[in-house]
Structures
1.
Amino acid sequence: MHTYHFDPPAGAPLPGAGEEVRLDAEESHHLLHVMRARPGDPVRLVDGRAGVVLAEYAGADAGRARVLVRASHRESSELARPRLVLACGVAKGKRFEAMLEQAVELGAHEIVPLQTARGEVWPGEGRRDRWQTLLRGAGKQSGRSWTPELAAPLSPAALLADRPGALFFTGAARDRARDWRDDGDGRCGPAALLASASAGAADLRAGSELVWCVGPEGGWDDAELALLAAAGRTLRLGPHRLRTGTAALAGLALLAVVREMVVEAGPVPGV
């Protein structure tokens, strides 16, 4: 069953069984002319905010497809806390765009482009519109009911100040002179983090967001690195230096697993 996007009126509930939904021109074209839908064909709609509508193709008027709703619901797994956030320095060329699409597949709820001392110049609203389109397309392709929000660009300091209750993680290269394990100085490896999540660590369960902070291709400057290290946990992903896109996806994949474990454990009572 293919997934299509629809935009319900702001604040409106999801359509219920027996109601009709008209798709926009782009989605109608795909359903009618690419998929060559026939009446009765099953259709899955998502609204980008965890809403899912199961329907069937009912016909078309003036090139706009109509679908008849059979059932609808909101996916609790997408709405559960903590949310997964990727805060990343902007990379050059197509690398950042490819990373955005893969971040959707890995479960990011929000993406924050970071303005850093050594980062790329912010490319402007035209590029931002393109990124938003890529996020929506990647959501449909992966079957997600949630389209990640694309935040306004922030400095690392503004990011930290803007998110009370969030847990921040930033990467650090392995020190070859030390063991690959949690060494008590705020740094940890994947095994230690997963063990903490498995044990139902209260700090992870109480966090409203897991924010993975990745520097630009030029790296963090000393002030940014000190600020991030003081605000959260430094996570070591391996013995080698990683490119921005590689670090973003590797850390996001790890934190997606941690989030799933935390969601299954449930919130800390009273929090």
2.
Amino acid sequence: MKKVNDCYDLKYTKSVTLRLLSDLHLDSPYTDLKKVKVLFEEAKANDYKIIIIGDLFDVMGGKYDKRTIKGDIKKEHSEDNYINKVIEDIANFLSPYIDNIALITAGNHEKEIDKRFECYLLEFLSLYIHRITGKDLIWTSSYAGFIRIHGSRNN
């Protein structure tokens, strides 16, 4: 598990293509996972690096969440261990792409769970992914920060 602070420098020795994604809400029944999978498969096939900026999770179906509408939860998550099931499903979804994921940052949905339960979703996601792949996920719990992209042109 690799947690970083507000600034993280991605350093590559060769040219890379970045795929910047946000607000995926992977556990939402309204997310088109087939389309999202296509984006990740393209990244894997072309060795793109993926940066996910906030709201990888939706997690609005918890018992004490004021935003909860039980009909807006996937059937497979409608259990007593709701948050664990969501983390496990997202870890399984992301694991094939671990070598392509450069960074994941928290969004307001992750921060709401952090605040309510003192439970850091991205930390638990990282642990699940490490258990599945043996590799570390790079993440930050910061809600705000900077992405600095430096490039050079070699002729």
